[in-house]
């Protein structure tokens, strides 16, 4: 059992390829614990069950390393790497010449530089005996008990043959009598986030980054705490190797392979390379993979592959000449928080933005960073004037991680989100279930208006070339633009008089605006920026309503009510009759010509709000009066705008209540049509017919003896109809 459990543990923590579900592992583990409790004499200190159990310590004992733990010199630029390589070639030249080799290109082993903390693990005859932190390099702290809890560290070295992949410990193999394994303890990024979430929930202090979390966890006096912290380990070298029988590997790459075979995780990206140029290529490759790796790295390490040359090259202070750490630009830096500004978004969302004293981080100069929302600032207790840690990882937006409380200036005030919009002075509202506060000013708010206009003119909406952020900004400030309709009232002569504008620009702009009048209804709807109405919903609305006039004329409250009634009615009938044939009365009102089935209650509510607002109605009337999306163009442009080949069915579908694009599921026996015939007819009008019911299903057509699909449709609140209704929808029965 021990061997099996150990094998599974290696599969999980070392090879990242578990072959057993976690629950089964746990069962097996508990069974072994029981057996060991029953026969304590049989307990083996290297058993997987022996990773925890010690009592908290008062302090850590001091341990002398058998061979000192050195540090690495850093290289920051390509030039640094070239001179590292040049120095090595110069120093090795005599040795190489004596071996009749040229020193033109040195062979290196390149690997990742893990951002954690160094530990030294001592194994005697293959058994883990002691672990120590790096300390001052000569002496560290004894963290053996905590290291035992790290499941990626084998308590007994394995003998995993490279070919068979067999991971069982083999008693016949001799290990070096004593060996020091060197490597890095760290925490995976996702484990770090989960840990911080738990800390937050428990009102405990959060960790700044995975490295601090790993260090804090390893230097815990109570091993029960450490075991709850998901620590990992990667081996990158050895200290003293003492053995009368087994030779240590002569190449560093072979040493890494030996470490891997012995059961240690090693750098997943490692390569034997020739010459400096290949080192630089490796650096770029690793930097590209950096964001996708499950753990943090702060660079790569190059080591002369031939280990016998290491001592030959010698040491400078506490760092060897045979290796160098080529560092990535740091992702975190300290700077001062100068101010917290509030930005108002298109939907009125108030976002606090940190204005920072410019700082070089993650390869660029950063002077703004996101603070997410009010709660975040509160929970992190970030105040203007603070010295803060700024983080910029990869291409992610820079963020303020933490304030350094020790450096807080006196009188720094707690941040308060303003009660009124900083742009327009309207009230600010925060819905109970939302983290975001919003300005209620709508288009009255210049910030919202500007962005609404930018959105309206954007490429995917009305596509007005030249009407970008800067120009919108100017025209709004001039009060020339109050609503999207004002775009169509712009005056060429006045535009041409604008500073840095000129006649030609004015002409081009007006031509672009004129062109936008013929955009499809779908684009116009999308451009209005109605909450929850994205491009897809806009297309659907355009298809089903055909004109802005129809959309305005819709009784949205009634639509909402009807929808609920039908769903409820269906459910009631089902319950009462227990027959699988629900009848849905179709009101002959125009409402049912446009069923809007794929549009959920949230969107419907948003549409209702939008169209109920007199100022919005006024804008729409203005747009129409100004010739935007003329009715004659609407139908042709809005239906299947991107699919001219379906023109034939278009004619039908418009007259057939817009079933095109709707998704149907047929179930049970349909009395006259049969399922195949029904499916055929639906497909002919452009509807989809699928086999299973999901949230994407618009209609379920239920016949006699319909079963689970019908139940699922009811559970999901999908509209259920019978064959008769289907025929009516198809326009075949009047
Ligand atoms: S080799 C004599 N390889 O970086 C050379 N170190 O800045 C010993 N580190 O203390 C170190 N990844 O904690 C080596 N692949 C790697 C490493 C690595 C991370 C750490 C290690 C060392 C520090 C030096």
Describe this structure in words.
The protein has 734 residues and is an alpha+beta fold. 37% of the residues lie in helices and 19% in strands. The chain contains 26 helices and 24 strands. The strands form seven sheets. It has a five-stranded mixed beta sheet. The chain starts with a helix and ends in a 5-residue tail after the last helix. Residues 162-167, 581-595 and 631-657 have low confidence and may be disordered. 2-(butylsulfanyl)adenosine is lined by residues 70-72, 111, 113-114, 118, 134, 184, 236-237, 267, 301, 320, 323, 325.
Unreliable residue runs: 162-167, 581-595, 631-657
Strand content: 15-25%
The 3D shape can be described as globular
Number of helices: 26
Count of distinct strands: 24
Taking the alpha carbons of the first and last residues, their distance comes to: 74 Å
Distinct bound molecules: 2-(butylsulfanyl)adenosine
Q: Give a quick account of the main beta sheet: strands, pairing sense, barrel closure.
A: 5 strands, mixed
Strand order, largest beta sheet: 2-13-10-3-9
Structural class: alpha+beta
Relative helix content: 25-40%
Rounded Rg: 35 Å
What integer is the average pLDDT?
Answer: 84
Quick structural gist:
This protein is of the alpha+beta class. Helix content is 37%, strand content 19%. Strands 2-13-10-3-9 form a five-stranded mixed beta sheet. The chain has a five-stranded antiparallel beta sheet with strand order 16-15-14-17-18, with no helix packed on it. It has a four-stranded antiparallel beta sheet with strand order 5-4-7-8.
